[in-house]
Amino acid sequence: MHDHPTDEPCFTPFPPAVLRPADLTAFSRGGGARTIPLVTQAAGAEVFLTGQTVFDGGAGIALHTHNCPESVTILEGDAVVEIDGTEHHVSRFDTTYVPAGMPHRFRNASATEPMRILWIYATVDATRTLVETGVTSRVDAEHARPAL
């Protein structure tokens, strides 16, 4: 079951932190979506990544897959999530789980109101592969284009 003695930590601890999204830089994902990285490798995370993405009215992201499981919770607004070809309407506090390699995408169900999600990737080395192009990049690589 365990590959380590129970009296030893299974990873180096992330330094204690209070992260306030309103005080952090948002990065453009294009198409009216902005990501706010929270728990990241750059901040000392060694096990998982978290952040928020804010979608303007009508905004959505392209169909994609990841190299690890992802969980998303709707924090604000209403969304349509497509998972493996099936669309689901989700609203505040609804949570998704998507296994590695499964195509999915989110879009704001409202044309006018914002939508906000909290995402969690099961590894700091999370990648995103766009289904349409096959292009793969690290999730944290998109944290380089500050939103205007």
Outline the structure in words:
- Mean pLDDT is 89; it is low at 1-6.
- The termini are far apart.
- The strands form three sheets. Strands 1-2-3-10-5-8 form a six-stranded antiparallel sheet, with no helix packed on it. A three-stranded antiparallel sheet has the order 4-11-12, with no helix packed on it. It has a three-stranded antiparallel sheet with strand order 7-6-9, with no helix packed on it.
- The protein has 148 residues and is mainly beta.
- It has strands at 27-30, 33-37, 49-55, 64-66, 70-76, 78-83, 86-91, 95-98, 104-108, 115-121, 127-130, 136-138.
- Strand 11 and strand 12 form a beta hairpin.
- It is built from no helices and twelve strands.
List the helices and strands and how they pair.
Layout lengths: L26 E4 L2 E5 L11 E7 L8 E3 L3 E7 L1 E6 L2 E6 L3 E4 L5 E5 L6 E7 L5 E4 L5 E3 L10
